[in-house]
Design brief:
There is one protein chain. By secondary structure, the chain is of the alpha/beta class. It is built from 14 helices and five strands. The protein has three domains: about 5-65; about 80-130; about 150-345, Ribonuclease H-like superfamily/Ribonuclease H (Nucleotidyltransferase, domain 5), CATH 3.30.420.10. The longest helix is centred in the middle third of the chain and has 22 residues, at about 150-170.
């Protein structure tokens, strides 16, 4: 037999060893076999047999069980734990002189050395971070230019006023956004031989399309696909398209793009004031906009994994994906990222 455990008892599971020790000791103490013979039969070193006998004679049968290593005492105290959690949650490494805003185990280990003269391993720090309810994950980036007070004011006051106006006018609220959808952007994984990247032939055309879209509280999706540069005329045309056939007024909330705030757009809104009103999110606050989830659905869940053949095929797939999303409103309702009441709006900040 070539099994490793035949020549190295350390490979034998603890539970099995507990039985072997008992059988060996019983053979000596109760049946009169010599320790040398038992050691030879079990393939165990003779000193181990004598050690088992000594433990059994001093502490009884329970002493024959495999003992668990006690492990080292915690060297990071509760006070250090508190500092560690507050530091990670409320600061970045840049605040401590490092040229990065992302925490790494190496940086945390170095900070513990500098501040507490504490030398610990990456593994120890990782254990403590998990113990503190922290995990390593993709960050949610926020623009430095974002004014948190304006965001809070929008959430707590402006949006409530918009909701109130919608009730007074009997209007629908819609959130609008635009995105550039490119044909050679791809994501996802596939199966292949270990050590060999699986080849997949794809179109390398860097062309794409501008997509304008807006979503309403009922999950309605309105969109337009164009190769034109996004300017005031394109935006007002899209607003006209959104108003077409609509029986209720429309309140549109969008970002502060230059063509959203142009004089041409202001004139269009003034000329159609009974049908449409326009409001704006605080600058640099894309995560407040539920329409952002349209791009997540279209790009990451559909287009980036599809076999795009050429530009014409890509345009067809873009429109098909949007039509599909328009039909299945529950997808918009699930993925819109921000519900329409104020409490959920607060969660998006």
């Amino acid at each position: 037999m070539n099994a490793e455990w035949m020549s190295d008892a350390r490979k034998i599971p603890d539970e099995v060893m507990n039985y072997i020790r008992r059988i060996a000791v019983s053979a000596i103490e109760e049946k009169g076999f010599s320790p040398e013979l038992v050691a030879k039969l079990f393939g165990i070193d003779r000193t181990s047999i004598y050690d088992w006998l000594r433990k059994y004679r001093h502490k009884g049968e329970v002493a024959l069980d495999t003992g668990k290593a006690p492990g080292a005492d915690w060297v990071i105290t509760p006070k250090i734990d508190q500092w560690l959690k507050e530091t990670i949650l409320n600061t970045t490494p840049a605040d401590h002189g490092y040229d990065t805003v992302l925490w790494t185990l190496e940086i945390i280990v170095n900070l513990l050395k500098e501040r507490f003269n504490l030398w610990v391993s990456d593994a120890t720090v990782r254990i403590h971070l998990h113990h503190l309810g922290l995990s390593c994950q993709k960050p949610c980036y926020q623009a430095l230019e974002q004014d948190q007070e304006r965001v809070k004011n929008f959430v707590n006051k402006e949006f409530k006023d918009i909701q109130k106006l919608a009730q007074e006018l009997g209007a629908d609220i819609a959130f609008e956004d635009e995105s550039w959808v490119q044909g050679n952007t791809r994501s996802g994984r596939t199966w292949g031989l270990v050590g060999q990247s699986p080849p997949v032939k794809v179109c390398d055309d860097r062309g794409g399309f501008h997509v304008l879209s807006m979503v309403t509280a009922t999950g309605e999706l309105i969109f337009e696909v164009t190769t034109e540069k996004l300017v005031s005329e394109v935006f007002t045309r899209f607003l006209e398209h959104a108003l077409s056939g609509r029986t209720r007024p429309l309140i549109v909330v969008t970002d502060n793009g230059s063509f959203h705030t142009s004089n041409a757009v202001k004139k269009f809104i003034a000329d159609h004031q009974q049908k449409i009103r326009l409001f704006f999110f605080p600058p640099h606050s894309p995560k407040l906009n539920p329409d952002e989830q349209v791009w997540n659905e279209i790009k990451n869940r559909q287009l980036e994994k599809q076999p795009i053949k050429n530009r014409v095929d890509f345009e067809h797939r873009v429109c098909s994906a949007l039509v599909k999303l328009k039909v299945f409103k529950e997808r918009i309702m699930v993925h819109r990222g921000l519900l329409w009441n104020q409490s959920h709006l607060s969660e998006a900040i």
